[in-house]
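Before a colleague's protein record goes any further, I have to sign it off. What it holds is a sequence and that sequence's fold in token form. My question to you is simply how this chain folds and whether the tokens agree. Thanks in advance; the entry in question is below:
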Amino acid sequence: MPWWTVALILFGTFIVFGIIHYAAKNKRPFKRALLSMLCGLVTLLAVNLTSGFTNVYIPISLLSLLVSVIGGVPGVALLLVLNLFF
């Protein structure tokens, strides 16, 4: 997948999250949207950093990064459940 497609997906996700936060009457909707997206990345990083203790590892790929950014913490939880079954 070309890099511009990934950038377009991330930008579109940012705009949609910004609109959702604006509709929810947040004071700073785009800052909140950025924090929502970063929270998913931090969660994915935390899961992989603690893999030595927990023996749970999610391989970093384009798909796992997009799921963690778009889905946030529930997206990472979904990746963990899928990793458990497959």
